[in-house]
Amino acid sequence: MASIPVIRYTPEQYLAIERQAEFKSELVMGEMIGMAGGSRENNRIAGNVYGHLFMALRGKSCEAFTSDMMVNIGTSFFYPDVSVYCGSQQLLDSRRDVLLNPLIIVEVLSKSTEGYDLNVKLDKYSRIESLRELIYISQELPLIHHLTRSDAGDWTHTTITGIDSSLQFTNVDCTLTFAEIYEAVTLATGQT
């Protein structure tokens, strides 16, 4: 049985296709990877985080984006669930849909994407010079992996668990309780 060859795309080819596509794809090492539609829980969690960050950052030199804003790392392009930049925004081109200097990235984990998010994306995201916080939120359990980068470039990983916990962003003035993050979400534990 013959294997199907993997087609490799340059960033320019990818962007030309992606900007016309009906469905989102990410680009990793030249390979376009189609994104599955997010579940209700994924969308709710991402929306809750984005909404609270949007309100907390109003009138400040920071801005939060939904998953419609791509992030570029070298030859790879991703759609984080939420991204934040502060200060001078750096965009790839005049289309203004690719952010180059995120300060914070938030990803909501699902069973089907967890391996990809915690391996491929984590490896690529950790190479972004401007990135200071990387947050992975479980949609199954009240669980958050909060990675922060020091000025020296070292990453620290903190695991936050329990529905009575909270997430304190270290680079913007915003703290979210798990009740706010998981509002209207049914967790595997039966909690809402």
Query: Number of DSSP strands?
Result: 13
**For the largest beta sheet, what order do the strands appear in spatially?**
3-6-8-9-10-11
CATH superfamily: tt1808, chain A
Can you give the mean pLDDT? 93
Structural class: alpha+beta
Our count of helices gives: 4
The CATH topology assignment is: tt1808, chain A
Shape, principal axes of CA atoms: globular
Kindly report how far apart the N and C termini lie.
48 Å
Task: Return residue spans where pLDDT drops below 50 for at least 5 consecutive residues.
Answer: none
Radius of gyration: 17 Å
Please give the largest β-sheet.
6 strands, mixed
What CATH first level would be assigned? Alpha Beta
Write the layout of secondary structure elements.
Blueprint: H1 11-18, E1 25-28, E2 31-34, H2 40-57, E3 62-65, E4 70-73, E5 76-78, E6 82-86, E7 98-99, E8 104-109, H3 114-125, E9 133-138, E10 143-149, E11 155-161, E12 166-168, E13 175-177, H4 178-181
Parallel strand pairs: 4-7, 8-9
Antiparallel strand pairs: 1-2, 3-6, 4-5, 6-8, 9-10, 10-11, 12-13
